[in-house]
Each structure stands twice: as C-alpha cells, then as structure tokens.
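ARCHIVE CARD
Drawer: 12
Card no.: 0347
Subject: one protein chain, sequence and derived structure
Cross-reference: see card 0346
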Amino acid sequence: MTRLQGNNSNRTVLVIGTLAAAALIGLAIFAVQGKPAAGAGLKGNFNLAGQPYNGQDSAPVNVVVVEDFKCPVCKSFEETVAPQLKDKYVDTGKIKQYTLVWPFLSEVARLNENDSKFAAQAAKCVYDQGGNGAFTSFKSILFRAQGPESQAWATKTRLKDLAGNVEGVDSAAFNTCLDTDVTAARVDADEKQVNDAGVNATPTVFVNGAQVMTADGKQGSYAFADISRAIDAASK
C-alpha cells in the first residue's frame, strides 16, 4: 500500500510538471506572436517631418537609422559605417540620412534615471536651435562621451556640459529646454513610431521604409556593404 501511494504521488507530480511545462511553452509562443520572425524585414512608415538628417533636400533615397545614444553598437556604427555612407551617398546627393532616436536602454537596465530619454531630449533641444548641423555635431559628441550601458552617464548636468561644445548653441536656452522637458513629447512620439514598426534592436537601418538585412543575419551588426547594396537597389 505504501509503494502504491508513492507511485501515485510520483505520477501526480509528473502530470503537474508536464502541465506546467506545457503552460510555459504556451506563454513563450504567445510572447513571440506578432513579432517579426528572425530574418524577416520590417517596414517602417515613418513620419520624417522635423527629423534631423544629413544630405540634400533633393536626394531621392531616404535612409533612416534608429539609434540610442547609450548603444555601444550604435557608436561603432557611427565611427565605421556612417563615414562611408557620407562619402559615397550623402555628400554626392544620393541619400538623405535621418536619425530616429529610440531611447530604450535605460529602461531595459532599470536605471534610476532615464538618461537615454534625457539624451534624446537634449539632441532635440540642440536641433531646435541649430538645425541639422548642430544636431550632427552634438550626436558625435554624445557618442564620443558615451559611458557604460549599465550606468546613467547622460545626466542633465552632463548633457549641459556637452552641449556647450556645440557651436551656435545658446547655453541658457538649451538648459531651459532640457530642464523643462520641452521636447519630451516629441521623443515619446519618435519612440512610438519605432515601436509601431516592430524595431527591437539598435542600430536598425531602413532604406525607403524597408529594413536593411545584414548578410550574416545578425541584428545591428551592419557592414557598409549591407546598406550600400540596399541603397543601390532603391536607386534603380
């Protein structure tokens, strides 16, 4: 009798464990539903009005780079791939290269300060004062000053110091813009655009609204050839 009770107990535990495992699998399946399959290209119907860009107004191809100023892979992209794009496509009038900031890394790291968003707000404050040139300069300064993802380095105090290095930016006006969160709603709107497009990594690059896929299938690890191929195809 004792052995039978033990066997029944083991069977009960086994059944409960099986049901629990099935439930977890079901939750996992539910979690990935609605997300793009690996290797599937996204479509980004972005509203680019009022977004900073490099290039000529008449350029026939739009390139959108989704970035977070705290993203180390984005920093690498800006140091290696972006200069090649500038030389071959931006400066020759073939593309307008937009920057769409997606400030998500501070939330992922659960930092006490949302410095991803602060940096995005600061960049818009600079853009409002100095346009595309000032934004591009500030973007370069931010990436050079980039700290660890796990630390809130882009504090408002630090951002004020960095903005002081951008020619033509009035420090008092910038400080007021940042302190009063004037651009926060626009940053939220940009974030919504990125989320609506299904983006889940930075950098993510779109050419005329179509996500550029890397040759090796790894998100974010773009080579110049990946984007060049997409631009050339869109230019035909």
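Annotation on reverse: The first helix runs from residue 2 to 32. DSSP finds eight helices and five strands in the chain.
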